[in-house]
Backbone:
């Protein structure tokens, strides 16, 4: 059985794992990410892979990273959280490792992971929506990862959903991720609590009276315990997600939408509002096959697993 | 050289043509469309094809129709302007014609036509945006027509661009085609003229003083003659289009966007504002390859030509 | 019984009448208004008064005019539709007539007329809202006409009701009269008809198919005949009026609001929605005395009658 | 010289003072306000007055209280923060005190105080705008306090300035005081800080990192020290105030607007933006006399002083 190494490069951590052909992680490590130093990250990735390959017979390496990867899957054109600008990461790593390397956008890699071994294993067409700090997306079409003409597609978090809306970190206004991300969830809950909304007071109390201590997991926990404000905030988030997914469905027509990312841990507290908002926003939904909306299965290891599998192909 | 017959079924007319392998139309006919009678349309299509095949050696028939076509390209699931609901149109026509038939969404067929013989002949990835009564879309990816999991993708006109926006014919609010179509252009110009906007008075005069006589071609003509209101109305339309195309580009990442449909006849009066609005709405555009926005080349025959070519494949 | 002459100076007509102490019009005349020539209007007013005084023993002259009148009731500071800018109209007319003259804002004069002889004859505190081309206002407090510190108060039509709203003729955005006037009624109905609103088609037919032939009286007539669109348009207008009157009531606390101006001819078709919208927009309405909303009684002669009565005092 | 006692009844404190004919406070006391017990407040007021009258020869008592006071100045119809509902407060206090008592709305009393002895002593027509927890108003016209037909006028904080705007404590949406009060200032600053606005971080640091510790005085202090966020927040508040005052000026036409309440302590940091926003929002401002906008002079004793003076008249 051929083994591959999957690497997930984030802003604070680099995770690496040895993955077999069934998507099983045989061994996994994490190291700090020296995010601001381009060469240091490359060294860190190479070190991680070398350590894993000292104990496993690895055939290829797949690296998932946030940002734009070129069509040839070799160069990081731009990464919002890391130092890379037009860096031939494939070349740099192959030089250090003497192994074939494939670079992929992290959400694309995660979509591939869920398609191969997770929530989309039974279909050919899938849209992954990751709900975390931002909103990421990955698309599988007819069993192939969708990469676009230049390799930079599926950036669904920057579809505009509100003209003249909330300013996004990217500089535009009204981007989907300003309404559908975990950051939006936290921002709105904190603002309500700090602005004096009476309904938010129990959650504020859970946060020790400090609005800045309100976090996504705290909201999810409170919602599970029945707190109406927390349930409502997840429902508002889910509504934005459902409406955005409807727009994406008009364009992409996937068979399954998989909701991943940290906030997807809220489960039905998030997914029920997503489904409720989705259907009425789908044109002529009584005359077309309706996709399924599912929770992701591979958690935060989808990228790792997907990247390794892409490298093996 | 293999010839194919292309048919474009509209709400008022059915057009049929004989197309060669270079996309050239050898002969073309149009008949009235008996839109409300499902069988009568099928008979009309068959009659048209029979007439053409009496004079040409036709190998296959491609039919483009507005609406949802199933993944197998055989059944019209739903057509907004025609009587078809879950009709096996391929079967009905093959029974009448004894020729292989392929059914395709009309905007998809037009996208294929522009890809093969028109404005996108030199690229592998293309998004066609047709600006007419509504806003239609067709996508070609890696040289293949993109059809989605259920065959109903690329319905870009129903992507929501304004929450709680203008009511659409589909029943939703804020659909792209309520802002980016020729109907939107005419609606806004008429409303301004009827509401007493001083700037609109010269255009109103051109329309004989009756706001209802303001049409898309009249606006385009006035704009060409330098009328500031008409130029402005096309610029507003172009801005909505450019902003919507930016959102679509985040998701689809095409190499070329082709603007077709009747309003594209306005040329640079429309395309210049589209381009001006597009770029600032594209996240991190300084770090990614930028697509080209081009005018369609095949006019209202793109669907005919594309459908024929699809049938031949 | 002392008689006085009342004059109402409009943009197209000048009306003059002889009024007795009971508010009865003994004789009335109208002449064209030479609106663009300041002196010519003064001559026309003087001619009209002289003719009336040749047959009646007139003690004083009251002139109502749209615009800002100074605190001393002598000078027209500014008139939007007439040529006067800082004109001592009282002096000009007294020189021509040898009679005491009082100048008053037209809506103020109308408010005084309704207070003395019309819908507000039984109360001490009244707000008149005139719904015509614009929205005008006049206020009577404790039995005295309210004139403000500089004589330019009660300009309720330019209270802002929508931030960044519709551009007003005055140059500001979102003024009350852009939502609560007869012009707003007509503008919206024409825009809906010209924009293709299906509901508006019967009214459009009544207008001979030309949206520009839709007028306020046509809408009122259609509403009386049960046309749902016309009824709805009057209800939308009435809602804006009721909401604006609620804001004015928070500030002014009148005992009676009188709705005048041409559109008030619609009667309960307008007043019922005004009342329905008013109450929920009044803070703590269950804890305060509630004013009455009444239709004006003196029609378009309220200004004439009021101006004459003010002159006599 | 006749002395009068002025009482200001707030939600947490009752202040009482002995005031001479020049508006000078000879002695002042404060006691806790038993806000939820109607009779206990009356006893507390009576006790306070008795103590003051034991040392001064008091001729009359004026009481200012938040809420609706009837036209006869005897009955509290409704008080949002106190227990009174239709209470004959004048009767209750005269029974306890054997002195003539006058009841007045607190902002009205403050307007009268500023008119007689403060920022409006030199004019006959004044609008007081108090910017504190809410937005209160008082109007003096031709040297008389404006009380409206039912005694409940000048409630400018509940004029609607944004349709479908922020929910107000009164149950309506979009009330002026949701945009122009100190509470609005604090709410917006806290929400920005809690929501992660980078610009707000220095202010958040001043608040010890806890958004809930951001207060009006903290914002004012930071603005005085040049903090751009704090300056900006005061400018946004001032803009809303200036725009609202423009609407009120269209209606009321005062000679002077006096800005009082706790936030007016910010001085020109607030008043400069008020003036800058006011003028462009005043229709035809180049054709009318322009009022002055001044800072209040009597601070939080304006109500006390005004109530006493009203009692003496």
Residues:
């Amino acid at each position: 059985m051929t083994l591959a190494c999957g690497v997930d490069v984030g802003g604070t951590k680099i995770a690496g794992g040895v993955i077999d052909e069934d998507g099983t992680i045989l061994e996994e490590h994490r190291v700090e990410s020296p995010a601001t130093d381009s060469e240091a990250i490359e060294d860190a990735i190479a070190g991680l892979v070398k350590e894993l390959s000292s104990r496993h017979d690895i055939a290829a390496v797949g690296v998932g990273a946030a940002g734009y990867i070129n069509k040839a899957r070799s160069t990081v054109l731009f990464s919002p959280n890391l130092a890379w600008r037009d860096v031939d990461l494939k070349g740099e790593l192959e030089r250090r490792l003497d192994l074939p390397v494939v670079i992929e956008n992290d959400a694309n890699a995660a979509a591939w992971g869920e398609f191969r071994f997770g929530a989309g294993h039974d279909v050919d067409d899938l849209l992954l929506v990751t709900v975390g700090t931002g909103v990421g997306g990955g698309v599988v079409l007819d069993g192939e990862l969708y990469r676009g003409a230049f390799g930079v597609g599926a950036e669904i978090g920057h579809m505009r959903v509100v003209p003249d809306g909330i300013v996004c970190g990217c500089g535009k206004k009204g981007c989907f991720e300003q309404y559908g991300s975990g950051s939006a969830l936290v921002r709105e809950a904190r603002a309500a609590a700090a602005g004096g909304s009476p309904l938010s007071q129990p959650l504020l109390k859970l946060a020790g009276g400090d609005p800045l201590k309100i976090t996504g997991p705290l909201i999810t926990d409170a919602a599970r315990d029945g707190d109406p404000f927390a349930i409502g905030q997840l429902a508002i988030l889910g509504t934005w997600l459902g409406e955005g997914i409807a727009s994406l469905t008009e364009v992409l027509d996937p068979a399954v939408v998989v909701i991943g990312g940290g906030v997807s841990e809220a489960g039905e507290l998030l997914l029920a509002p997503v489904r409720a908002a989705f259907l009425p926003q789908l044109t002529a939904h009584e005359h077309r096959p309706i996709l399924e909306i599912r929770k992701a299965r591979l958690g935060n290891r989808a990228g790792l697993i997907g990247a390794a599998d892409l490298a093996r192909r």
About this structure: Residues 3-112+301-312 of chain D form a domain with the Nucleotidyltransferase; domain 5 fold (CATH 3.30.420.40).
